[in-house]
Specification:
Layout: E1 5-11, H1 18-26, E2 33-39, H2 46-50, E3 59-63, H3 70-80, E4 85-88, E5 94-95, H4 99-109, E6 113-123, E7 126-128, E8 142-145, H5 162-170, E9 175-185, H6 193-197, H7 204-211, E10 218-219, E11 227-228, H8 229-232, H9 234-237, E12 250-255, H10 265-268, E13 273-278, E14 297-298, H11 304-311, E15 315-319, H12 325-333, E16 340-344, H13 348-354, H14 357-366, E17 369-372, H15 375-384, E18 392-394, H16 414-417, E19 421-425, H17 433-441, E20 445-449, H18 451-456, H19 458-468, E21 472-475, H20 483-487, E22 492-494, H21 511-514, H22 519-525, E23 530-533, H23 541-549, E24 552-555, H24 558-565, H25 568-580, H26 587-604
Parallel strand pairs: 1-2, 1-4, 2-3, 6-9, 12-13, 12-15, 13-14, 15-16, 16-17, 17-18, 19-20, 19-22, 20-21, 22-23, 23-24
Antiparallel strand pairs: 4-8, 5-9, 6-7, 6-8, 10-11
Length: 608
């Protein structure tokens, strides 16, 4: 007999959840249903968890060999569905007994409707009578008439916007009718699909690690910027591997690569072979493999010790930020005698807060080589972790690849209107709304880039707008390929505008004193002088860098900045100084020095 409702149950790595979901289906008052469980390549015991339910002939189970994404799993189920009505039960969600009957009844009452939706509980003490404001309709709350429409799959786009993935295809077919009854639960937990996708907890790198995606993605979460890795990395991915050099090393990258991850290809381009062993549960900005630009061979996290012994790398290069510390320390602890280099960017103070300081200190003490992101960072570590000894190098961990600097400068806006234009890419740290108002009063424009960041800084924008008027400009995020053309339109760029309180005492330094913000390379790529508070007499890494290399302007108030920005001769000379030194802010510029350091570390261990 043909069932009345086909219930599609996509699942991945949720063996602990799926029995509860299936039990809630078996308890339905509407019994004329079939269930199509599509296991999207789960690595856990999902098959065993489902097995007892297969005694009910209404339940069918199919396991896909590898994960294909939500759209592919749902389309597989749709192809096998027999009923005229389609409902969804993600394996971590729950139906209440009357759920299917209520939705089917709603469609009966509204023959012109294409879809019916219920209210739902969406937290242990929260519920909504229908669609949650600001969210698309969720799978568990919907039932629709079967059509020939299919879900958008991963090859086209990854997004948590179900409207974009499917509901928009149904809307021309009829109305969406609500039952007004809470009859299911969208279970709230950290591994929900939309949380894996949405920044700042999820994101493209989190998604890639969770589902083991081995190719570049087109990705757009409902709270972030669109990311087209296919186009962005084509120039790198589609070139052949570089033949191994006669003195080429086998380098195992351990941890995560953070920003400008493709920089490591400069090592591969010199004939060294790269492997990757990545930290679990990365944040959206913690780039991990499989890497979308290719040319790095991943080792499995399960059984990684055996994999390392099989590959026999010449060197372990562990990096980069605080989230990678526990895993890097685990690899150090179980290192089978391979030279180990620890490269840390940020931040030691977060490790103190998060309780991973013992592991960080151990990494510095026991590593065969250490790389500091700034000279000041190295000096501070010597005071904070006494006893560090051995080979050391200073190299900023976030430097971009040289290819992104290959563009011509654009005409400056100030050449047209005679007013200074400054820019801040990312967070306007240290720039109070009142300061932006002072800039505006002096005829100085501030251009703020990063629409995702702007969402986080909405209150700041709301306070700054009335003070700055037409002198505050908001712009979307800019990819690396457009840095030069876009940012060279401005006269200068803001670093973190902070006043140091260390008074020249390194032990009083904080992270702002020690850090090279990633935006330095973004601004230098476009030939922009760096704007920062004049912290004369304090230990501040960016101040030393900019003074030594003639890269920036220093001031204590907006009057002083105004005078400098309007000194056309000096600004022209300073812009040319920055432009001449741009290559020093690429990873490629320092690659040979890094390889020489690796050789020094290996030789100290008696290798090669």
């Amino acid at each position: 007999m043909t069932p009345r409702v086909s219930v599609l149950i996509p699942t991945f790595d949720q063996a602990a959840f799926i029995p509860r979901a299936l039990d809630s289906l078996l308890a339905q008052t509407l019994t004329e249903w079939e269930a199509l469980v599509v296991d999207d390549g789960s690595p856990d015991g999902t098959g065993a968890a489902v097995a007892p339910y297969l005694r009910d002939g209404r339940v069918r189970y199919e396991r896909l060999e590898r994960n294909g994404g939500l759209g592919a799993a749902l389309n597989r189920a749709l192809d096998r569905a027999r009923a005229p009505l389609i409902a969804y039960l993600p394996s971590d969600d729950v139906y209440y007994p009357e759920h299917l009957a209520t939705l089917a009844g709603c469609l009966d009452e509204h023959p012109d409707a294409a879809l019916a939706y219920s209210g739902m509980r969406h937290g242990y003490n929260r519920s909504a009578p229908g669609q949650i404001p600001g969210c698309p309709l969720q799978l568990v709350q919907t039932m629709h008439r079967r059509t020939g429409d299919r879900w958008v799959e991963r090859d086209e786009i990854v997004t948590d916007d179900l409207e974009r993935l499917f509901w928009a295809r149904l809307r021309p077919r009829g109305d969406f009718a609500g039952t007004g009854r809470v009859s299911c639960e969208w279970v709230d937990h950290p591994a929900q699909g939309h949380k894996i996708i949405q920044e700042p907890v999820g994101g493209v790198n989190t998604y890639r690690a969770r589902y083991g995606v081995g190719r570049p993605l087109r990705f757009h979460s409902t709270v972030g910027n669109p990311i087209d890795e296919v186009a962005h990395y084509r120039r790198f991915r589609e070139r052949p591997d570089t033949p191994r050099a006669a003195d080429g090393l086998k380098i195992l990258l351990v941890g995560e690569l953070a920003y400008n991850a493709e920089r490591v290809l400069a090592l591969e381009e010199r004939g060294h072979r790269l492997y990757g062993l990545w930290m679990p549960e990365p944040y959206w900005y913690n780039t991990v493999g499989p890497l979308p630009f290719g040319h790095v061979e991943d080792l499995p996290r399960a059984g990684w010790r055996e994999a390392i012994r099989e590959v026999r790398p010449d060197l372990i290069y562990a990096l980069l930020n605080w989230q990678a510390v526990p895993f890097a320390h685990e690899v150090l602890t179980h290192n089978p005698g391979i030279p180990f280099v620890w490269h840390f960017k940020e931040g030691p103070f977060i490790c103190l807060e998060k309780g991973t300081w013992p592991q960080l200190a151990d990494l510095y003490r026991r590593a065969d080589g250490r790389i500091y992101s700034s000279p000041e960072m190295g000096e501070w570590c010597a005071t904070a972790i006494p006893g560090i000894a051995g080979p050391a190098l200073v190299l900023d961990g976030d430097l971009p690849k040289r290819e992104w600097f290959a563009a011509e400068r654009s005409p400056r806006l100030s050449a047209a209107d005679g007013q200074p234009h400054t820019v801040v890419p990312g967070r306007p740290i240290g720039l109070r709304p009142e300061t932006v108002g002072e800039l505006a009063a002096r005829g100085i424009h501030l251009h703020f880039y990063g629409d995702f960041t702007q969402g986080q800084w909405r209150a700041w924008i709301d306070r700054a707008r009335p003070l700055a008027g037409d002198y505050l400009h908001l712009h979307p995020n800019v990819d690396q390929s457009d840095w030069v053309a876009e940012f060279s339109r401005y006269d200068a760029g803001w670093l973190h505008f902070m006043r140091s309180e260390n008074g020249g005492d390194l032990r009083r330094a904080n992270w702002d004193d020690l850090n090279y913000p990633a935006r330095i390379a973004t601004l230098v790529a476009a030939g922009l002088p760096l704007l920062q508070y004049d912290n004369r007499g304090a230990v501040v890494a960016t101040q030393t860098l900019a003074r030594d290399r003639d890269l920036g302007l220093f001031f204590t108030d907006m009057e002083g900045l105004d005078a400098q920005l309007r000194d056309e001769a000096r600004m022209a000379r300073l812009r040319e100084s920055v432009w001449r030194q741009r290559d020093q802010f690429t990873f490629d510029h320092h690659t040979d020095r890094l390889i020489a350091f690796f050789g020094q570390v290996i030789a100290a261990r008696g290798g090669r």
